[in-house]
Structures are given as structure tokens and as C-alpha cells.
Amino acid sequence: MRKSAGISWLRVIVILGFGVASAYANVIDTVAILSGSDLTGTTEWNSRSGADVVINVYPEPVWKAPAAGGKWISYGLTGPGQTSVPSVRLVEGLVVDPPTAIFYSSFYLPAPAVSGALRVWADDTASVLVDGVTRISLVSPMNIGVWCAQAPLSCTPGTGGTVDLSGLGAGSHTIAVQAWQIWGDTFGVLYEGSVTVSAVPEPATILMFLPGLAGAIAWGRRRRQVCTHEGESASRADISGVRY
């Protein structure tokens, strides 16, 4: 009887353990990284004006259309018919001036990234850094195209640069998009992406298992009491059957 109780008690512990482990494994968080999602300058900002400005009234018709919730942004209204942005200097196709503007986006991961990617477009072109490390470099020499720049990272749908974010660890991270205007006209950037992490379950998830655990503990105690009582009764019966 005691052996059977021990096996049942062990079985309960194993089942609860698998339940808690499943909770950890099945809770997934997805962190979105979208340009124009924060215009207060808190998690998105730029080097020129601080808070970003959405260009949604006069977007260039050739610009890549946002598809995942991002918006074309700039440090001001620098779309068609608005403020024209002067070009940086090119010497034999090499950019010799600092970026026209740098756009930053910070985000927090509760656990290491399982997967993730960021797509970036710019008018005219850009480089991309993650936590200070260059992931997409500025193309040299630079060629001016009919629209934006003739570069892997430009403004049209097929010229977006991709950054792999799957290797990021838990904690805070910052993306920097260094954008250059080389055409002397409209200016802006667009980025869309996300990071998926296996997150630590919320306290409410863990609390779901507490009633079962408490019940299992109570059941185990009751089982031991029953086994102890049966053992004592058997002992008394053995003693009463002894003849002197």
C-alpha cells in the first residue's frame, strides 16, 4: 500500500512539473519594431529634431508602401511639395559628409530572441547599426538613380535592406538608421520588423498551477494518513491474535 502511494505521489509531481515546463515553453512574446509607432521621442527619435514626424500627406509615389504598420518618417515634413532637403557632398561617388539625419529606435526583449528581422528603406539611402555595430554599410561608390539611390538600401519596394535580429539577447537594444540625402529633394526612412522570444510566463500563468499543487499536497498527506492508519490497524490485529 505504501509503495503504491509513493508511486502515485511521484506521478502527480511529474505531471505538475510537465505542466509548469509547458507553460514556460508555450508562452511566446513578439516585439514589434515599426517606424512612426512612437512620435513622442521616447522609444523613437532622431538626431535633428528629437521627435519623429510622419510623412503621410504627400508620400512619394515610388516609395515602398508600408505593409506591417510602419510609417515613413523624417525629422520634419520633408515629403513632396514640403521642405526640400539639400544633398550631402559626393566626391567620386564617395559620401564625405555626415548623415543627413540618424533615426533611432529602442526596444526591450524579456528573453533571448528566437527569431527576428528588420527591413529598412530610405530616401535616398542609409546604413543600419544595432547596438552600435554596423549591420548594413553605406554603399561606396554611390550612384544617384532616377529615384533615390542606386544602392541595395534605397526607397523602392525591391531595395530594402534586411537585418537579422535572431541573435539578440535579453535586455534593451537600439537600432540606428543613418540616412543620407544625395538627390537634394524628398527625404525619409521606413522600417518594419519584429523579434520573437520565448518569454518567462507571467505570474498569472504560474498561479494557474498553484491550486493543483495545493490539492496534490493535501491528497498526498491524506494518503499517508490512510496508509499509516491501515498499518496501525494491521499491527493491532496481529498483536490481538497472539496467544500467550
Question: Characteristics of this structure?
Answer:
3 helices; five-stranded antiparallel beta sheet; 244 residues; Jelly Rolls; 25% helix
How would you sum up this structure, described in words?
It contains 3 helices and 13 strands; from the N terminus they run H-E-E-E-E-E-E-E-E-E-E-E-E-E-H-H. It is α+β, with helices and mostly antiparallel strands and 244 residues long. Strands 2-7-12-9-10 form a 5-stranded antiparallel beta sheet, with no helix packed on it. It has a 4-stranded antiparallel beta sheet with strand order 1-13-8-11. Helix 1 packs antiparallel against helix 3.
Describe what is shown at a glance.
The protein is an alpha+beta fold and 244 residues long. The chain is built from 3 helices and 13 strands.
Query: What is the CATH topology descriptor of the largest domain?
Result: Jelly Rolls
Q: What is the helix content? A: 25-40%
Mean pLDDT: 81
Strand order of the largest sheet: 2-7-12-9-10
Distance between the termini: 30 Å
Structural class: alpha+beta
What general outline do the C-alpha atoms trace?
Answer: globular
CATH first level of the largest domain: Mainly Beta
CATH architecture of the largest domain: Sandwich
Number of domains as seen in the coordinates? 2
Cα Rg: 31 Å
Low-confidence stretches: 1-7, 12-16, 20-25, 234-240
**Secondary-structure element order, N to C:** HEEEEEEEEEEEEEHH
Characterize the biggest β-sheet: 5 strands, antiparallel
Structure summary, number of beta strands: 13
